[in-house]
Amino acid sequence: MPIVHVFLWEGREEEELKEMVKKITKVFVDMGIPENAVEILVHETPKARWAIGGELASEKFP
What we know:
- There is one protein chain.
- The protein is an alpha+beta fold.
- The protein has one domain (about 5-60): 2-Layer Sandwich (Macrophage Migration Inhibitory Factor), CATH 3.30.429.10.
- The protein is built from two helices and four strands; from the N terminus they run βαβββα.
- The protein has helices spanning about 15-30, 55-60; strands at about 5-10, 40-45, 50, 55.
- The longest helix is centred in the middle third of the chain and has 17 residues, at about 15-30.
């Protein structure tokens, strides 16, 4: 069933990630998809490996 990829900067607390995946899963459950069919992959990337507008995020958002 659905596989959700979430890309974000590293540094979130585990509790924040748990809350996020619960809320994302709920969106699909509300659409009638079984909870155990929802897969979520969290890709945490350092700001130094993420660029916005030609600048590294680590420089734009220190």
